[in-house]
C-alpha cells in the first residue's frame, strides 16, 4: 500500500469514528441515567415504567428534529417553542369540531414558516432576529385565539397518546421511527446530501443546479411540519391548549441537536443524535426527581448534566482529531 | 459620502431612532400633547436598562461569530438577590451591595467563557447551561420572595437633576465612553479584530482568548449592574425580573446595527433600538390593543425593521 493510499484510508476512518463517538456519548449518558433510575426504583423497569418516563419526550423529539433541520441550513430557530404553543391552541380549539378549518390553519402556519425561511435567505437576514420576531407572531396569534389555557384535545388524539402498541412502549416506537426516517432522509439519501450541502456550502449546491430558494422553502416547511407534530402530540398528552405551554422547547431543542453531535456551522447534524439528545434531556428531569434533588436545585442540576455530557464530547473530539 | 455618491445614505442604525420617533409622535397624537413628555421620559428610563444590558451583549456578539450570552437574565436576578441580601434594606450597605453585584457579574462572565473554551462548547449552549445553574443559586438565595432595596437605591433610580432623569443620562455617558473605547482604545480595536478574523488577529499578536474573556466579563458585569439598578427602580429583586431581557438584549443589539457575524459594533444604535422597543410597547398600550395583537404587531415590526434596514457591506 502506498503512503498516500494508507493516508486516505486513515483519513476516511477518522470522521466515521468521530460520528460514532458523537452519537455514542448521548447514548451512554442515556444508558447511565436509566441505570440509575432502575437501580433506585426497579419497578420502573417495565412497559408501563418506560411509557411514563418517556411520555413527554415525544413532543420534544419532534421539536428537536424541527430545530435540527433549521440548524442544518446554518440558521437557528428561536420561534420553535411558541409555534408548538400555537399548534396546541389550534388543535384544542378546532380539530374536534371543525377538522377542515383546523387543517387549513395548519397549512397556513406551515406555509408561513416556509415563507419566513425564504425571506431570511433572499434578504440575507440574521435568522436569530427574524425567528425571534416570528416567536412573537406565533405567541400573539395563539393568545388571540385562546387568551387563557383551555379547549380540549380530540378523543382520538388523547387515545392515541395513551395507546399501548405491541412489543415496545409508544414513546420508544415513535423515537425509533423518527430517528430511522430522519437517518434515511438526511444522513443516507442523496437528497439529504444536497440538503446538508445547502447548509455547509450553499454556493457549491447552487452551482450544481439546485435552487437554494426551493431547498430552503422545503426544509423550513418540513421543520414547520415537525413542530406541528410536536404540538399535536403535546396536545394529546396535556389534553388542552396553552399559548405558553412550551417556551422551554426552543432552547431545549437547540440543546438536543448539539448534544446529538450537531454544530452551528451548518450541514453537520445527526437525526439519530438529535432524537437521543431529546430523550436524554427529557429524562434528566425524571432522573433528578428520582435522586430526590430538592426542587430549587433541579434546574441547576440540569445545567450540570448538560455540561457533563458535552464535556465528554469535548474530550473525545480532542483524541480523534 | 464622496462625490460619486451624492444621494443621502441613511445608516442602518438610524432606523431605530426614526421608527422610535414616529411611534412617539403617533402616541402623542392619539393621547394629546400633554403626555408627550411623560411618554418620552418613561421610554428613556426603561430604555436605559435595555441599553445597559444590550451594551454588554454587544461586546460579546462583536467578539466573533457565534458568540452570545444567554445567561444575561439569570445573572441580573442573581446579582440583584445577592446585593439585596447583603444590603438588607440598609442605606449604609449600598456600596458593598453594588460591589457584590458587580463581582457576581464578572465571575459569571468568566465562568461562561471558561465553559466555552475549556469544554469547547458553542457559546449559546454554554451560557444556557450556566443560566440554569445561576437560576438555581437565585432560587436558593431568596426563593419566591421579593427582596426590597434600600431607600437610597430606589431614590437614585428615579433621581432627577433639574427635571432631567439622572440614570438615562449616566447610561448615555456610558454609551459615549463605549464608542470611544471601541474606536480608540487598544481593547476596542483588539475586540473588533478578533471578531473579524480570529486567525488574523492571532497572527497580529492579539491574545484573542483574553480579549473575549474581557468581553464576557464586561457583559456579565453590565447585566449585574442592570439587575442592581432595576431592583431599585421596580421596588425589589424578583425571580423573573430579567426574563424579558433575554430576547430584548439580543434584539436591540442587532436592530441597532451590530452584525451578528461579529467584528463590528454600534453602541449608539442600541439607544435607537431600545427606544423603539419601549415606545412601541407604550404606543400599542395607548391604542388599547389586546395582548395578543400587541405581541403579533411586535413580531411583525421586528421583522420589518431588519428587512428594510440596509445592512453594512460585507456582513
Draw up the topology in text.
The complex is a heterodimer of chains A (321) and B (315).
Chain A: H1 3-40, H2 47-54, H3 57-72, H4 80-95, H5 99-122, H6 127-145, H7 155-161, H8 170-188, H9 190-200, H10 202-207, H11 212-238, H12 247-259, H13 271-290, H14 295-320
Helix pairs in contact in A: 1-13, 1-14, 3-8, 3-11, 3-12, 3-13, 4-5, 4-6, 4-11, 4-12, 5-11, 7-11, 8-9, 8-13, 12-13, 13-14
Chain B: H1 14-31, H2 36-62, H3 72-87, H4 94-118, H5 123-142, H6 151-157, E1 160-161, E2 164-165, H7 166-184, H8 186-196, H9 198-203, H10 208-234, H11 245-255, H12 267-286, H13 291-308
Antiparallel strand pairs in B: 1-2
Helix pairs in contact in B: 1-12, 2-7, 2-10, 2-11, 2-12, 3-4, 3-5, 3-10, 4-5, 4-10, 6-10, 7-8, 8-10, 11-12
Number of helices of chain B: 13
What is the quaternary state of this protein? heterodimer
Overall shape of chain A: globular
Radius of gyration of chain B from the CA trace? 20 Å
Number of domains of chain B: 1
For the biggest sheet of chain A, the summary is: none
Taken together, the total number of domains of chain A comes to 1
Quote the distance from N terminus to C terminus of chain A: 23 Å
Number of strands of chain A: 0
Unreliable runs of chain B:
none
Mean pLDDT of chain A: 89
Count of separate DSSP helical elements of chain A:
14
Instruction: Determine the most extensive contact between two protein chains.
Output: A-B, 47 and 46 residues
Q: For the CA atoms, what is the radius of gyration of chain A?
A: 20 Å
**Secondary-structure element series of chain B:** HHHHHHEEHHHHHHH
Level of helix content of chain A?
A: over 70%
Strand content of chain A: under 5%
Amino acid at each position: 500500500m502506498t503512503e498516500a493510499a494508507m493516508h486516505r484510508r486513515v483519513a476516511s476512518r477518522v470522521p466515521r469514528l468521530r460520528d460514532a463517538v458523537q452519537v455514542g456519548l448521548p447514548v451512554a449518558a442515556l444508558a447511565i441515567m436509566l441505570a440509575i433510575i432502575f437501580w433506585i426504583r426497579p419497578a420502573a423497569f417495565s412497559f408501563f415504567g418506560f411509557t411514563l418516563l418517556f411520555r413527554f419526550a415525544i413532543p420534544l423529539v419532534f421539536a428537536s428534529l424541527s430545530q435540527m433541520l433549521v440548524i442544518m441550513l446554518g440558521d437557528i430557530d428561536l420561534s420553535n417553542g411558541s409555534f408548538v404553543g400555537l399548534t396546541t391552541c389550534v388543535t384544542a380549539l378546532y380539530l374536534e369540531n371543525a377538522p377542515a378549518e383546523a387543517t387549513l390553519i395548519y397549512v397556513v402556519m406551515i406555509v408561513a414558516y416556509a415563507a419566513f425561511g425564504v425571506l431570511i435567505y433572499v434578504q440575507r437576514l440574521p435568522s436569530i432576529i427574524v425567528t425571534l420576531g416570528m416567536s412573537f407572531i406565533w405567541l400573539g396569534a395563539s393568545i388571540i385565539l385562546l387568551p387563557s389555557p383551555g379547549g380540549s384535545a380530540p378523543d382520538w388524539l388523547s387515545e392515541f397518546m395513551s395507546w399501548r402498541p405491541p412489543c415496545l412502549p409508544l414513546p420508544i416506537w415513535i423515537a425509533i421511527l423518527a430517528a430511522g426516517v430522519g437517518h434515511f432522509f438526511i444522513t443516507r439519501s442523496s437528497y439529504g446530501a444536497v440538503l446538508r450541502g445547502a447548509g455547509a456550502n450553499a454556493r457549491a449546491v447552487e452551482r450544481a443546479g439546485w435552487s437554494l430558494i426551493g431547498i430552503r422553502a422545503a426544509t423550513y416547511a418540513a421543520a414547520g411540519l415537525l413542530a406541528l407534530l410536536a404540538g399535536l402530540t403535546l396536545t394529546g398528552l396535556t389534553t388542552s391548549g396553552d399559548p405558553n405551554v412550551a417556551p422551554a422547547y426552543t432552547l431545549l431543542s437547540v440543546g438536543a441537536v448539539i448534544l446529538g453531535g450537531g454544530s452551528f456551522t451548518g450541514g453537520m447534524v445527526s437525526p439519530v443524535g438529535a432524537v437521543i439528545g431529546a430523550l436524554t434531556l427529557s429524562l434528566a428531569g425524571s432522573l433528578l426527581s428520582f435522586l430526590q434533588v430538592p426542587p430549587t436545585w433541579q434546574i441547576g442540576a440540569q445545567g450540570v448534566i448538560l455540561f457533563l455530557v458535552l464535556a465528554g464530547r469535548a474530550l473525545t473530539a480532542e483524541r480523534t482529531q | 459620502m464622496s462625490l460619486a455618491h451624492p444621494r443621502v445614505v441613511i445608516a442602518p442604525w438610524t432606523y431605530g431612532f426614526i421608527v422610535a420617533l414616529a411611534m412617539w409622535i403617533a402616541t402623542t397624537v392619539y393621547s394629546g400633547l400633554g403626555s408627550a413628555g411623560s411618554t418620552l421620559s418613561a421610554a428613556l428610563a426603561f430604555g436605559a436598562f435595555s441599553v445597559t444590558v444590550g451594551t454588554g451583549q454587544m461586546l460579546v456578539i462583536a467578539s466573533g461569530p457565534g458568540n452570545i450570552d444567554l445567561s444575561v437574565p439569570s445573572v441580573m436576578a442573581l446579582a440583584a438577590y445577592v446585593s439585596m441580601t447583603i444590603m438588607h434594606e440598609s442605606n449604609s450597605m449600598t456600596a458593598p451591595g453594588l460591589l457584590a453585584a458587580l463581582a457576581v457579574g464578572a465571575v459569571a462572565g468568566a465562568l461562561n467563557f471558561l465553559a466555552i473554551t475549556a469544554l469547547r462548547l458553542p457559546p449559546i449552549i454554554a451560557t444556557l447551561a450556566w443560566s440554569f445553574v445561576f437560576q438555581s443559586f437565585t432560587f436558593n438565595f431568596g426563593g419566591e420572595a421579593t427582596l426590597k432595596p434600600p431607600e437610597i437605591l430606589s431614590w437614585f433610580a428615579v433621581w432627577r437633576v433639574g427635571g432631567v432623569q439622572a440614570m438615562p443620562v449616566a447610561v448615555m455617558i456610558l454609551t459615549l465612553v463605549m464608542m470611544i473605547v471601541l474606536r480608540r482604545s487598544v481593547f476596542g480595536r483588539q475586540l473588533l479584530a478578533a471578531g473579524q478574523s480570529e486567525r488574523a488577529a492571532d497572527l497580529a499578536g492579539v491574545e484573542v482568548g483574553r480579549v473575549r474573556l474581557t468581553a464576557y466579563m464586561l457583559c456579565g458585569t453590565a447585566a449585574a449592574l442592570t439587575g442592581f439598578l432595576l431592583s431599585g427602580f421596580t421596588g425589589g429583586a424578583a425571580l423573573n425580573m430579567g426574563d424579558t431581557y433575554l430576547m430584548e438584549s439580543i434584539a436591540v443589539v442587532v436592530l441597532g446595527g451590530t452584525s451578528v457575524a461579529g467584528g463590528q459594533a454600534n453602541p449608539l444604535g442600541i439607544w435607537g433600538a431600545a427606544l423603539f422597543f419601549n415606545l412601541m410597547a407604550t404606543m400599542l398600550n395607548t391604542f388599547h390593543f389586546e395582548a395578543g395583537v400587541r405581541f403579533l404587531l411586535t413580531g411583525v415590526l421586528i421583522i420589518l425593521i431588519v428587512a428594510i434596514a440596509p445592512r453594512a457591506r460585507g456582513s
